[in-house]
Amino acid sequence: MTTISSLGVGSGIDAESIISALMSAESRPLNLLKTEAGDISSKISIWGNVSSYVSTLQDAVRTLSSVSIWNGMKASSSNDSAVGVASDSAATPGSHTVNVTALAAGQNLASAAFSGSDATLSAGSLTIQLGTWSGSSFTAKSGSNPVSVTVDADDTLADIRDKINSAGAGVSASIVTDAGGARLVMRSDDTGAENGFMVTATEDSDDGNAATGLSALGYTTNDGSSPMTAPQAARNAALTVDGIPISSASNTVTGALDGVTLSLKAVTTSAATVEVSTDTAEISTAIDSFVSSFNTLMGYLKAQTKYDEAAKKGAPLQGDAAAVGMISQLRGVMNTDFTGSSVYSRLSDIGITMNKDGTLAKSTSGIEDALGNLGELKKLFADDGTGTTESTGIMQRFYNWTNEVLGSDGSLESKTDGLQSTLERNEDRQDSMQTRLDQMEKRLRAQYEALDTQMAALQGTSSYVTQMINSLS
Q1: Which helix (H) or strand (E) holds 397?
Q2: In a 3-state reduction of DSSP, which class is residue 178?
Q3: Could you tell me which of 41, 171, 288, 428 has the fewest CB atoms within 10 Å of its CB?
């Protein structure tokens, strides 16, 4: 609102100070509402944090109450440089011996040396067929069709390489240059005996010499009489698992052991031992996450509901029934006995105990001992129960509780919605009160402006009368 800087000049009264004092007194209820709004906003923020901490706890207990973490397996190899291992949930605990006598390989062919990668051969075609060599006998791979590559008269060795690579024949080509010249090298894309290949070179104009022109890239026999040579034959990997012979087209072997993948890297001189066991490290990490998330939530609730004796002041949620109720519920979930296990009935049985302030303490040795009895530990944590709290695993109980608290009709949403509604009503009252104060200030200023005008007129009359009296004298 625009103020009149000369207000009070006509009357000689300090009207600005009077109006300011009056408005200050009238604004006290508004200031109280603003303070109250700040407190409500602070509580909304606090409950938002509580919701976040409950969500984190829910994630932790969901992990410990899920089937997957209890079925998690790990595998190790005593000779990882020769036999690598990986496992999934289908694996079963056990110890196995693995001997590798041969690695799977693809077929390699090398041509005679040419003058360079820009050398030209002759026009014609190369027909590539995948299959298995047995001596000089070749058997086409089931489901594989021959692929023809057309070679023009002006195609260089590099052009032929590129055409082979783009043909999709299951064979890749490159050029290797040594002291003798440039050689075209062809190799199987995949390992295994069935991924050997035959190359039939057909010249448009055959010069009758298999060692010249496009014929120099042929490989139709496996007895050393073909123009191209085979530095590496296609073969399967050969290994034994627990003494049982196994042949694999790939160096990645699946199916030999349930749920275990063997990665063959080198021939072994002695058996590699493969150990498969439950992945207890993942469970231990999940237990740490639960304890940490529980303590974060409990610690925050305790801090927001405490009374500071020294300051004689309560925290924002001190005495709040919902917050105090959550603390009690958390304790209740922890302290209700579990009847589904013959070994463990409480978390304290595995070394997780509650401190006086409601937070949890964890005994590493207690957890390690419990991890040695996974069947009963799983019951304590993850049993679905038969409808009663006592028969429901503790992590499952916590999950049910967090689900209820975070639900659309849960206490957190109800609390936040209630505070939000209170804040909106407060803001409406502030707006209404501010409007009334603005009107009041406007009215006061109008009244003092009128007083100024009247006082100025009276002072003018007084001066005139004084002058008249003085003149008569």
Answers
A1: helix 394-406
A2: strand
A3: 428
Q: 3-state class of 202 per DSSP? A: strand
Residue extents of the structural domains in the chain: 1-72+279-456, 73-104+237-278, 108-232
The token pair that represents 222 in the structure block: 């496996």
Instruction: Round to whole Å and give the CA distance between 328 and 113.
Output: 85
Tokens representing 84? 């690598």
Q: In whole angstroms, how far apart are CA 297 and each of 2, 211, 223?
A: 52, 81, 76
The angle formed by the CA atoms of residues 76, 80 and 83, to the nearest 5 degrees, is 90
Direct distance between the N- and C-terminal alpha carbons of the chain, in angstroms, rounded to an integer = 51
> pLDDT value at position 7?
61
Q: What is the pLDDT of residues 184-212, one digit of tens each?
A: 999 999 999 999 999 999 999 988 888 89
d(CA 469, CA 473): 6
Report helix angle 28-65 to 15-26, nearest 10. Answer: 40
Per-residue pLDDT reduced to its tens digit, 231-281: 999 999 999 999 999 999 999 999 999 999 999 999 999 999 999 998 899
Tokens for 148, please give them.
Answer: 């023809």
The pair of structure tokens assigned to 171 is 């064979």
